[in-house]
């Protein structure tokens, strides 16, 4: 029983070490799937997966979550500001068009 618990503990430690290394260094998995029928390509799927820590991703220039409205309150604020500016521009263009 004690040996089994030690083995589980070692496996958990090894898994934690592996996960820490992967997040620290990053890992990329890439693959393409193409389906052809009689020489005609019917479907082409490109799969790209990056597993890394946030710090490592930002080091690599990846920060899409900062501008995703679903993930960032600042992005939502910018989206609202952009919408407001577009409305003001449309109003100005309409007003200027009427005076020309």
Please tell me about this protein's structure.
It is a single chain. This protein is of the alpha+beta class and 100 residues long. The chain has two domains: 1-62, no CATH class; 71-100. 57% of the residues lie in helices and 23% in strands. It contains three helices and two strands. It has helices spanning 2-25, 54-59, 73-99; strands spanning 27-37, 40-51. Strands 1-2 form a two-stranded antiparallel ribbon. A hairpin with a 2-residue loop joins strand 1 and strand 2. The longest helix has 27 residues, at 73-99. The protein is flat. The model has no long low-confidence stretch (mean pLDDT 81).
Write the layout of secondary structure elements.
Layout: H1 2-25, E1 27-37, E2 40-51, H2 54-59, H3 73-99
Antiparallel strand pairs: 1-2
Q: Please count the beta strands (DSSP E, at least 2 residues each).
A: 2
Strand order of the largest sheet: 1-2
How is the biggest beta sheet arranged?
Answer: 2 strands, antiparallel
The run of helices and strands is HEEHH
- What number of domains? 2
Shape: flat
Strand content: 15-25%
**Average of pLDDT:** 81
What is the SS-derived class? alpha+beta
CA-atom Rg in angstroms = 25 Å
Helix content: 55-70%
User: Which stretches of 5+ consecutive residues score pLDDT under 50?
Assistant: none
Tally of contiguous helical segments: 3
Q: What is the terminal separation in angstroms? A: 89 Å
């Amino acid at each position: 029983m004690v040996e089994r618990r030690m083995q589980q503990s070692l496996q958990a430690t090894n898994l934690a070490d592996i996960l820490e290394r992967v997040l620290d260094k990053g890992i990329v998995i890439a693959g393409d799937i193409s389906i052809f029928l009689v020489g005609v390509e019917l479907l082409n799927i490109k799969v790209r997966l990056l597993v890394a820590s946030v710090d490592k991703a930002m080091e690599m220039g990846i920060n899409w979550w900062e501008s995703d409205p679903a993930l960032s309150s600042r992005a939502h604020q910018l989206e609202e500001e952009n919408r407001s500016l577009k409305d003001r521009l449309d109003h100005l263009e309409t007003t200027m068009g009427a005076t020309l």
